[in-house]
Amino acid sequence: MTKQDTALIIIDMQRGMADPKSGRRNNPAAEANIHQLLLAWRAAGRPIVHVRHMSRSPTSVFWPGQAGNEFQENLLPLASEHVVEKNVTDAFVNTGLERWLHVRGIKDLVIVGVSTNMSVEATARSAGNLGFATTVVADACFSFDRLDLHGKAQTAEEVHINALSNLRGEYATIVDTASLLN
């Protein structure tokens, strides 16, 4: 597994991600894989950061005070785990996350969550640019179907793999849950 001071960053695993408005997604096992990683980090006493998206739009499922804004039951933070609230895709922007990590001497990050092409990719890019050794767990993330720039439908699987391909090498190492835990 990873070094003792490696932080697990769990991004936007809120109840709103299961809202039908979000559309069709890939990787139905992502939550189980995230839960498995969360349990391993807790058992090892490693640092864990839960990131919650706090939408600025009252019509969003992530608007504060709505059920969709709450963390998924299986992934609720413990009182000892750090929670970061963000308003944009990147968990480093205006959240104090970078400082929190530096104060604790954390230089290695494992990023999981949703969506691969939005908050996971934005956060991993910043992490890499800020000098953190960054790993993204491919099967502990997921994306949704979306239209490309030309209006052509892209499946969630295509969106997911493209985002991971964008990150691989330049910003992050890409692994799966089993290889990370072994």
Major sheet: order of its strands? Answer: 3-2-1-4-5-8
Number of strands: 8
What is the domain total for the residues? 1
Q: Could you tell me how far the N terminus lies from the C terminus, measured between alpha carbons in angstroms?
A: 6 Å
Question: How does the helix and strand content classify structurally?
Answer: alpha/beta
- Output the CATH homologous superfamily: Isochorismatase-like
Specify the oligomeric state: single chain
Report low-confidence residues grouped into runs of 5 or more: none
Q: What do the pLDDT scores average to?
A: 95
SSE string, helices as H and strands as E: EHEEHEHEEEHEH
Can you tell me the CATH topology? Answer: Rossmann fold
> Counting H and I runs of at least 4 residues, what is the number of helices?
5
> Which architecture name does CATH use?
3-Layer(aba) Sandwich
- DSSP helix fraction: 25-40%
Query: Quick one: CATH class?
Result: Alpha Beta
**Molecular shape:** globular
Kindly provide the radius of gyration, computed on alpha-carbon positions and rounded to a whole number of angstroms: 15 Å
Share of β-strand residues = 15-25%
Largest sheet, strands/sense/barrel: 6 strands, parallel
